[in-house]
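Revision sheet: structure tokens.
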Amino acid sequence: MEITFKQLDPETDIPELSALAARIWNAYYPEVITQEQIDYMLGQSYNAESLKKQMTEDNHVFTGAYIDGKMAGYISVSTDGLGEYFIHKLYVDTSIHKKGIGKALFEFVFKDKKYTAIRLTVNRQNFKAVNFYFRIGFIIERVADFDIGNGFVMNDFVMVCKP
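Predicted:
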């Protein structure tokens, strides 16, 4: 299985990204959060307007992982310009978990970066993801709860990876 990587373009790649996100969230997250929260979060973060804003105004760099020309996963990262990075999103199609795609995305994005810290947030009940991040070198920095509106709260770990 050959994985190729490409920085996603806000003019051409949003429909495929949005469709993949919906498949992943609807297949994976019902065991972690309610369907109502899934629908709300998809509507807030994965509609075309929001994704375009993240890419063009918020300076989130999205990289897609492709297998046989089809997007299989993606990562979204921003930096403060001083060596600290934040992973906003790192997702892989649930039908191909445990194939090294998430780790390959992480390594592709950070292989040449000089960083002092990489942070991310992950749902505390998302044990598979938490364990994945442990395996690639992250530790739990703190517990955080984020009110995301509409009566929903994200109950997360803030995790950090340092060189």
